[in-house]
Write a structure and sequence with these properties.
Length: 207
């Protein structure tokens, strides 16, 4: 994932143009402390925990800590079973950050992504990359007790879909292997063909 792009309108005479402004460290005007945010139950159905503003946050406030976790190469990312807490990177060495097991002092892990049109109307956080680290910054004033929401980008949801599809393939593979125990010779041959098809599907999925 690259820098989140903010779109601002600029009017010149009667014509209106759109200027693309990358969100970066230069946009930061304020810095939040760990006590300025808290983890609570998300207002998004099925999302579990979310991150909330404990106090009112001004626009362009950098949230505490970068997105912390294990930095993965693309090969490691492809081998991972769970992409729920993956943050993609644009970097020559690392492909993503996996925050799944980094629970402490990692508030950005709990910021949920807006996916539906209704959720996107409530976006109040942007993200940007600095080196191999990702930071979040508020893009508008955020009242106290408001949930913080960010746009993860399509690559995040692609990763979730990849993880789900890979899990389904592995479940089918395990079921076939279980059926192979005690199967007749003719049945065993059919099951081996099914396993071969699954291997091809997995190779295609990973390509």
């Amino acid at each position: 994932m690259g820098a989140k792009l903010l779109w601002r309108s600029r009017t010149s005479g009667t014509r209106k143009t759109v200027v693309v402004q990358p969100l970066a460290e230069r946009n930061v005007k304020w810095h939040a402390s760990m006590s300025d945010v808290r983890v609570g139950r998300s207002k998004i159905k099925g999302a579990g925990s979310g991150l909330f503003a404990s106090v009112a946050l001004r626009a362009w406030t950098k949230l505490p800590q970068p997105y912390r976790g294990k930095k993965l190469t693309k090969k490691q990312w492809l081998r991972a079973r769970d992409h729920s807490y993956m943050m993609g990177l644009v970097h020559k060495t690392y492909y993503a950050i996996d925050a799944r097991e980094c629970l402490l002092d990692n508030p950005l892990r709990y910021v949920n992504g807006a996916r539906t049109a209704a959720q996107r109307k409530k976006l109040n956080v942007g993200r940007y990359q600095l080196g191999s680290d990702v930071y979040y910054v508020t893009t508008k004033s955020v009242p106290a007790d408001t949930e913080l929401l960010v746009d993860y980008g399509e690559s995040y949801w692609d990763g979730i879909a990849f993880s789900k599809a890979l899990g389904e393939l592995r479940a089918r593979r395990d079921a076939i292997r279980a059926d192979m125990c005690g199967a007749s010779a003719s049945k065993l041959a059919d099951l081996e063909l099914e396993l071969e098809d699954l291997r091809d599907e997995e190779l295609e999925l990973r390509s």
